[in-house]
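User: Some background: our group keeps a shared notebook of sequences we're curious about, and every so often someone picks one and asks for a predicted structure to add to the entry. Today it's my turn. The entry only has the sequence so far, pasted here. Could you supply the structure so I can complete it?
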Amino acid sequence: MKAHSKEFDIEKMAQVLGVCRSGYYEFLKRLPSQRAMENEKLLKKLKKVHKESRETYGSPRVYQELKKQGEKCSRRRIAKLMQKEKIQAKMHKRRKITTQPGKKTEMIAPNHLDQHFTVEEPNKVWVSDITYVATQEGWLYVAVVLDLFSRKVVGLGMGKYLDTDLLVRAVKQALWHRGLKDGLMHHSDRGCQYTSKSFQELACRHNMQLSMSAKGRCYDNAVAESFFHTLKTELTNFYDYRIREEAETSIFEYIEVFYNRQRMHSTLGYVSPVEFEEQWEGGLQDIKAC
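Assistant: Of course. Here's the predicted structure to add to the notebook entry:
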């Protein structure tokens, strides 16, 4: 009745609904319940968390962030409030384009990783992939290298051309940022950039063990592909980039500022990749102190 009070007469609505007019006015004077007031405060907090996540968090991550902040509430309650207010993680799909498989079968490495995506320490296994991002100027090609331990992006290459140099730049950046550890494995799909002579020579110089997905098994490189799904559904699919440079700046900022340092990862216990590595390093220091 309150919602339609400007359209219809209160007395007529009361007659149609079978309620007394005095009861309606009593209802208007009634103070909101304790639960309603608590929900209002909680709603303000979850809206802030959702906004700070760049509108990428659904109820599980919103719940985890509020829990970190000391908020005592259930995940179900958060989900119900978000559903009622139509607050949800932004998602947008576009057609997928994949890299071409390498034709030189002698350059294809065995699948050493074999979907073992849990690693005990950093710089043991890196995974890599290449994707395309649309701009008005044409495609921007993006190559990434992730540390499988923390899912942190440690190498990034972007450019106008889909060539081996794109990948080599990403891997060299990862080597420069992280240094190299004996026994490092690099896993990828069978794209021609990964089977190229120049990339394999780079891997050989740095004593990297190459691993490649088995034929027809897309899940073998699921972690790298999952990252690109996140990048596109949370960022690039929402923008109509004018030039490649604009897309490069946007992607770099998303990875370095948000993804690596702020975005909670469910596989990591709802902390960011940087925080996960800091916790691991802190644990090592504790062990040494003992």
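Suggested note for the entry: The mean pLDDT is 87. Strands lie at 125-135, 138-147, 152-159, 185-188, 209-212.
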